[in-house]
Amino acid sequence: MPFSDMSREALESYRPDLPAPADFDERWTATLAEARAAGGEVAVTPVDAGLALIEASDVTFPGFGGDPVRAWWLRPRGLTATAPVVVEFNGYGGGRGLVHERLLWAAAGYHYVFMDTRGQGSAWGNGGDTADASGGGDAGAPALPGFMTRGVREVETYYFRRLLTDAARCVDAVRTLPGIDPTRVVVAGASQGGGLAIAAAGLVPDVAGALVDVPFLCHIERGVRVAEHDPYQEIARYLAVHRDREEETFRTLAYVDGVHHAARAQAPALFSVALRDDVCPPSTVYAAYHAWAGPAQMVVYPYNGHEGGQAYQQRRQLTFLDHLWENR
Amino acid sequence: MPFSDMSREALESYRPDLPAPADFDERWTATLAEARAAGGEVAVTPVDAGLALIEASDVTFPGFGGDPVRAWWLRPRGLTATAPVVVEFNGYGGGRGLVHERLLWAAAGYHYVFMDTRGQGSAWGNGGDTADASGGGDAGAPALPGFMTRGVREVETYYFRRLLTDAARCVDAVRTLPGIDPTRVVVAGASQGGGLAIAAAGLVPDVAGALVDVPFLCHIERGVRVAEHDPYQEIARYLAVHRDREEETFRTLAYVDGVHHAARAQAPALFSVALRDDVCPPSTVYAAYHAWAGPAQMVVYPYNGHEGGQAYQQRRQLTFLDHLWENR
Amino acid sequence: MPFSDMSREALESYRPDLPAPADFDERWTATLAEARAAGGEVAVTPVDAGLALIEASDVTFPGFGGDPVRAWWLRPRGLTATAPVVVEFNGYGGGRGLVHERLLWAAAGYHYVFMDTRGQGSAWGNGGDTADASGGGDAGAPALPGFMTRGVREVETYYFRRLLTDAARCVDAVRTLPGIDPTRVVVAGASQGGGLAIAAAGLVPDVAGALVDVPFLCHIERGVRVAEHDPYQEIARYLAVHRDREEETFRTLAYVDGVHHAARAQAPALFSVALRDDVCPPSTVYAAYHAWAGPAQMVVYPYNGHEGGQAYQQRRQLTFLDHLWENR
Amino acid sequence: MPFSDMSREALESYRPDLPAPADFDERWTATLAEARAAGGEVAVTPVDAGLALIEASDVTFPGFGGDPVRAWWLRPRGLTATAPVVVEFNGYGGGRGLVHERLLWAAAGYHYVFMDTRGQGSAWGNGGDTADASGGGDAGAPALPGFMTRGVREVETYYFRRLLTDAARCVDAVRTLPGIDPTRVVVAGASQGGGLAIAAAGLVPDVAGALVDVPFLCHIERGVRVAEHDPYQEIARYLAVHRDREEETFRTLAYVDGVHHAARAQAPALFSVALRDDVCPPSTVYAAYHAWAGPAQMVVYPYNGHEGGQAYQQRRQLTFLDHLWENR
Amino acid sequence: MPFSDMSREALESYRPDLPAPADFDERWTATLAEARAAGGEVAVTPVDAGLALIEASDVTFPGFGGDPVRAWWLRPRGLTATAPVVVEFNGYGGGRGLVHERLLWAAAGYHYVFMDTRGQGSAWGNGGDTADASGGGDAGAPALPGFMTRGVREVETYYFRRLLTDAARCVDAVRTLPGIDPTRVVVAGASQGGGLAIAAAGLVPDVAGALVDVPFLCHIERGVRVAEHDPYQEIARYLAVHRDREEETFRTLAYVDGVHHAARAQAPALFSVALRDDVCPPSTVYAAYHAWAGPAQMVVYPYNGHEGGQAYQQRRQLTFLDHLWENR
Amino acid sequence: MPFSDMSREALESYRPDLPAPADFDERWTATLAEARAAGGEVAVTPVDAGLALIEASDVTFPGFGGDPVRAWWLRPRGLTATAPVVVEFNGYGGGRGLVHERLLWAAAGYHYVFMDTRGQGSAWGNGGDTADASGGGDAGAPALPGFMTRGVREVETYYFRRLLTDAARCVDAVRTLPGIDPTRVVVAGASQGGGLAIAAAGLVPDVAGALVDVPFLCHIERGVRVAEHDPYQEIARYLAVHRDREEETFRTLAYVDGVHHAARAQAPALFSVALRDDVCPPSTVYAAYHAWAGPAQMVVYPYNGHEGGQAYQQRRQLTFLDHLWENR
């Protein structure tokens, strides 16, 4: 039977009661404070991307532990006025690739920053350039996955604690870039990138908007139970070996679960979900969507899998941002 | 074993002797003449793609039989000087999709025309808008494949005769668009799009350049023998049923084989090939590359499958076109 | 888990409320009237099938739009009395093949007509000989599928509108053949053939019986939701691309849905269903069976997939027809 | 890459030198003598198959060890003259099924006997009725495979020794049936049935003809090396466990290898081979074909897999037998 | 979705009402009586396993019909006191293999007997040495499966009747071995071995304990309905061919169903179940566990498939036996 | 076709000319010197494994960078004389698991040390306990693979440089354990463990013997070209993304290639190879075997895949070691 985890009706009222860890806010406050205290500079180097209409730069900013994290920054060539920015995070296993790959938002007149994902970038696409320095120095340079269980024994060592911190610190860094209006930062992403956008919007609640497509890292326990594929199933395979670590593993995972981060997000959000998504099942997406503390809309793609709405959803996002600025 | 059809050394000297049908040129000359005689206008309608930097239009031009064929036309907003154009053809099963999907060439300062593929556009991506009118009127509206054997009993009725003619007529149409330099038309495409680019460059030999990636429709008989997947295997499955039509089928296919069209192409070409490509095996790509009558370069991706060089190859193409105009 | 969509008990009382389009009857009445008005002759050519006991002919009759549709006609050699006829329709992707392939009904003493399927016949078996003329002229000659979405944008252009009309017109034609008792026409088929038999029995309600095995094209919306394979999933893949055409697509499909045609059928019917059928799920079969307006029996094969009852079911059918004529 | 084990040219001259076991003829002579000595009667029971044109009987004849083996016997109803017979053997895992399943040869005017396969008949189709009595009494009743390694430790206990003997004894039995011309017995079969037809023609060299399609059990050692599927791979899996029995296993298999039986066959034969056959690879078929001691023709299906020529090949066989009798 | 047949909560209270055949006890009493009456000796031959710490013997004991069944017997070298024994049965398709493969229980200080499985032993591992003599003499020597439907037409001829009897007779034999305490026999096994351990504990109710892991042959009808793989699905495939034997087949299977044998077992038992087990689904395991007439504990592995708890479960078993003897 | 990379004859003479990097010895000498200089103690903690015959300890020794690496140490309980030791390394993705899992060598009278694999241990089996400390501190705790490309940009940061050093340092540590004869250390392993055994025997050339089964990490470039599965294909996927790093990647890999380490090994070796091994293809195994500088024997399993000889090979190894000590 084609994948489906709940009927459309059940999804629309699915609001599981998932309590966050008691020290969730305390821990994240401390984590961000430490990361900000670690210092490090935002370095910007111009890049010749061969694009007549778009100016490009290679940005390095301090992420978790002050580790250098790379990003591409694109904007309309010759743009002089201050303008809003879209900050996008990537899907699982991908890196920032080459500079000319993602042109939509700059072509639409926005600043655009695409964050590299520490340690990832070798599974598909055109590569990444950011080592997971606090997770292994040079040995943490981009390599094949999986990342779901790296350091999962406790939240302090967990890979995704570092990555979510990078996402929040990326927003910090972007606000310092010349020509960007720091009050108009939109976070965006699909799959893992959607999970990071949720986390960034929860950790930096004054972002101006969020574009969240088929997000991963939401309602993780259910994801492990119903998703048919990696990355959720990496956790199941890990627990099939480490048969005595179920409780501690889900305790760690709770700190990166988008359901809890969504409950702290204030910005207007545009979500999308695909009802045949066997990687990030719709119930897990709805759980985060329904937990979102700010205003939120959902776009449903009933016949799509994890690819979701693709260009159709981009068209919705272009309109959503148009209206967002209009209404402010 | 990972897919490989010949060693790298063997590929570099692989030049199979494949005679074209005796009336190859005569038939194609007649076909193009008929298509041009069928008339029809090039209609251009502005489109709001939501892109500050890029102007977009919906183009309809007369293809095979004068049938209306759709295309997207993108160019730098406010471009006043005459500029070169990249005309791209699409891969098998895809349509032109939505207008904001392919921004590279316009962002790089070129005119860019992306031709819809008659009847195709329903297998992946974001859809198509061109019916295979001469192949079934409204009933020929975009729908799921396969197309490899539609009308294959004789070349007159064969689907790809219509599609190759569209590609050539697209070049004709593009040359009439305002602001485009008709002497600087580059044809481009990957997979089926690569096969169409080869055909367009052979049928319209005064195009200025060709960007051909992992092309399909080349050395078809070998493709049927060694490729592991559709579309080449559609032909094998057809012949497994129509056990008495092997000879006539390959007779038809010879008219659309890129090896023969390449032998008539004069423009400088940049090819790419992936050595693990089990859809368009490297030997079939090399056969067309070695047959190319104009100057040609090959970029080899030894570890890639049919996805080929992706952004790495785009970077090569940006440079190739830069040098092309420089040298003229 | 082995495929199952509902428990056996649930199936037995499954009678979904599926309203037909308001103009269902009107449209079909018009469609048949047009087809009949298009004229065309029934041509019969003797064929040497090499069979001592059976006489064979190649029949061409006018189908939708008057298009020539082919069929094989077999009957006991030397049969002089008027006799009943079994008219069979084929499964998806198959053609009428060679004349000596289906001998059961002639060997059992009946006239037997096996209708070719326009445009199909290249996916398995031994080929077909009928072009989808109104759907593309010579370009519509048999070729590989898929057919589910050809012209689906509106019912006027939809492939299956043409095919269902062929099935009804085949009954018309058969009634004119010498030696056949026009009051004793039985329609039959499995899978797509079963869907066509249902449609023929609904469109030509005075047929004498129907043999319907694991029928396709019934309760289509549910089929798309629960079937694991093509052809139902062709529709899902089409809608995954054409994300904005869900409503219009199912509007078109309603006109060919066997549930509505069954509700207009009057003849005694023998159905069969396989409980592990992941191509034509049992709930979709029961929906048509329960909608059947005439007397109907169901044979259940609990452990079979789409192959269904095979020779076991044939034995039931031989008996069913024996009793049918006895009771008249 | 689509399956291919040798080029077509290489196949046409492939004549491996495979010596038969020294006592091959001696053992088989003794085996047949014992089986004939075991006695047992040929019992014929009329069956109502519901077929007006064909008379059917259920036959039981003594096979290996005198074990009762079942068969269906069909012939034109009312046939009075003595006529030739086609004796067919079945593919791996199948049984004789129901009586009305195979009608071609009777409809063509021949006597037709279809032998059940001891112990098999539960893997596909409509079942079998013959226990492998000498291989387990009632416990040997039809059940799922595999059979390739049953008793393979020595030829005396090997399953296929029993089955090949059944095939030879079936010819003996058929020659005693009323109305059958004992000088015009043709043996036939596809896959395992083809292997049995070869064996029967070698063990009973005065049969009148052989129809051998994509035969199994030929050049077995190569089959194990190159075939992609069962049944050949059952042997490989067995040897992967019984790592010390390679030599003795192939010693046993040599006694049932069609290459050696073909070398003893005298009758005219019509073979067919499919070049993409990954179950019975073409090289193994050519090895038997080239070893055939009588006159032989080969029909090649270049694009088919193990399904081979199907109805196309039947048409060839009808013609072949027509000419065979003509020439006698 | 990852395999799951019921939620964990539902499993914990799953106690299906499955009545045993009326003559269940009568038949088994008769079967065991016959087997015991058939006589035969327990033969013990010392084996040099190359193990300094462990003494090994090759044991042959009379099983069903007095057939010779092989087993390995291992015990601490130089052990003089009487000691308990663990008798283990093997999984489907495996044989006793080589003598040095299973060392845990002897290394832990126990006698250990590992019973070969008649006819099996060729599908994985290192082979078996026991023919299914009553099921085919030498022809019944180990060979590839399947065994699920051998002789299933009635319980008298069914393969598993013979195998369960072997398991009970193995306990009889073990009790006669020197140095083994006949009051402290523990039966053990995983998958098919677990089913045999259940049966042995039901048929020989005074065994001292049972270690039952992910048992097969329990609640068989449900296993056929929900398991995704063989061996349960062998039964479904058999019934898909023998469409008229559903009732008689399940009648036979009821005699070997672990649910009924568990209801007759008295010994303390340690069960384990894996919640993602798609071979022996958890509901079938719980059905037997809840039916167990003696004291029983269940260990749950929520993320494992059919591999179950592996070394984790062995650790539990070592402790369980330690406590078992302590408490006696 | 079943996997095969070369014929058996070709394998037996396959000696590719693969030059080691110029500074191979220099680098490894420096690496080992640094590791030895890093210090750290060998700690031994008794463990209650519940095994009456075997004494067990948990060992921690200093590996690469002095990082603590865990191992299990088993030996006959009460053994007083000095005895030889077998040091085993594990396959890819596995950890040392639980202490009672591998009993053969202790039961055979040897000391036995089973080294944990840093960072691995979460993909199958029962877990591991060693972090890849120099590769990420606590964040390097066991987690799912892949490891093939971790830090592969240069040999200094490459994961396998650390792991091979651990293997050599494990031999150092084992020689200090009480009761172990430091002149009689045998290294052993299958797959990755085989590659580590080769490396240990090359880096510590005075080990007394090597048992090398289906080794991984040998003739790596060919492995990437012909193996069908991970881990070799991890490298290909990495290079399919990092299209510009082919040369540097293979430069790094050369330092861990077993072909070069074998050329430095002096101890007698028993190799095994499986001719259908699609994970570690036979040609890569033969390349290392033929490069081995000491005396070596090869055992061939023609029908096995990567599971190789299993218990059959263990039997050969027991005998090989018996003879080894005898001859000294």
UniProtKB/TrEMBL annotation, chains A, B, C, D, E, F:
It holds the Pfam family AXE1. InterPro entries: AB_hydrolase_fold, AXE1_dom, CE7. Residues 1-323 form the Acetyl xylan esterase domain. This is Cephalosporin-C deacetylase.
